[in-house]
Specification:
Rossmann fold, alpha/beta, seven-stranded parallel beta sheet, 322 residues
């Protein structure tokens, strides 16, 4: 197939900074408009934690399962049709069970745990899992080093992000977010290379504080973005002054950032060249442009893969790719 091979050679390479659900939906659109092999997701591992003895990488798994077409679409995470015998059995034995991990999901995390114990890294393990699930895009954990994101709440407690999100159900009393582990971590294998070789770098519509924030906190990543030859385009996860899903509003407020597409654009202004925001926020376009960003406004609520593909097209167009 010489024509297909030529098209493949010519297709741009795109690197995407990614969290979980918002990123996964966006990536599903991106691989509908580009050969999936040309897409590399650089994924937050700040949410990683050991649960029930297995190493869970929530964002890496959400992205992998979504690109594999296997995600539980209702929840946005976990595997479709998964059962819960393991967690129920552990619950019956007196274990905490607030982190709901399905049986097959548990087995995949068990694989990761076994491979890590054998000395394989997170990147090698992510590669094995995505290959086994038939995902053609590369999925790169942001670092091999532990990078737990810690949320400090008003009563002084320091919660792992998953404790804040899943156990405490994201209370509105955020005082600070501690990314110091990421600030001392090394970029994962392939991360800086993917940024250097990309024709476009996109920030998925992910939580700017706890998904994109940890990736940007890793030493070397900001420099790589600033020296990359590729334009950088971000997609707003805030639509009409609120997150589509999740606690981004509480975290942004806790850090004193306005909960709006403009607030997010302000966080990214030094790194990004372009910004995609939702049509309902069209009135903010001049203010975002005044930050020095090129802007596109369109429907960004990715209810269907078709909408996600349009959002991806808009981001690529802002990056100068047809
Ligand atoms: P998490 O780690 O699973 O919370 O995933 P992300 O950080 O990738 O995604 C969370 C963010 O995605 C939230 O701030 C949501 O507002 C945003 N998000 C989710 N779905 C959509 C969507 O369809 N459109 C847009 N624009 N943002 C979305």
């Amino acid at each position: 197939m010489p024509t297909a091979m030529a098209a493949e050679r010519e297709a741009p390479q795109v690197a995407v900074l990614a969290g979980g659900v918002g990123a996964a939906r966006f990536l599903r659109g991106l691989v509908a408009v580009l050969p999936p092999e040309r897409v590399t997701a650089i994924v937050n591992t700040g949410d990683d934690r050991v649960f029930y003895g297995v190493h869970v990488s929530p964002d890496v798994d959400i992205v992998t399962y979504t690109l594999a077409g296997r995600v539980d679409a209702q929840r946005g995470y976990g595997l479709e049709g998964d059962t819960t015998a393991v967690i129920e059995t552990l619950e019956g034995l007196g274990h905490e069970s607030w982190f709901r991990l399905g049986d097959r999901d548990f087995a995949i995390c068990q694989h990761r745990t076994l491979r890590l114990a054998e000395g394989a890294g997170l990147a090698a393990t992510a590669e094995e899992i995505r290959t086994a699930l038939g995902v053609a895009s590369r999925i790169l954990p942001m670092s091999e080093d532990p990078c737990p994101t810690i949320v400090e709440v008003a009563d002084g407690r320091r919660l792992h992000f998953e404790e804040y999100l899943a156990r405490e159900r994201s209370p509105d009393n955020v005082k600070a977010v501690d990314l110091s582990a990421a600030e001392h971590a090394r970029p994962g294998p392939g991360v800086l290379e993917a940024l250097a070789h990309a024709d476009a770098i996109l920030f998925a519509p992910s939580n700017p504080v706890v998904s994109i924030g940890p990736i940007l906190a890793i030493p070397g990543v900001r420099d790589a973005l600033q020296t990359a030859r590729a334009p950088v385009v971000a997609v707003s996860p805030i639509v009409g002054g609120a997150p589509v899903k999740g606690p981004a509003d509480r975290l942004l407020r806790g850090l004193g950032v306005e909960v709006s597409a403009l607030g997010v654009a302000g966080l990214y202004r030094e790194l990004a060249d372009g910004f995609v925001l939702d049509a309902v926020d069209e009135a903010l376009v001049p203010a975002v442009e005044a930050l020095g960003l090129r802007v596109r406004a369109l429907d960004t609520i990715m209810r269907t893969p078709e909408v996600a593909a349009e959002v991806a097209r808009a981001a690529l167009a802002l990056a100068g790719l047809p």
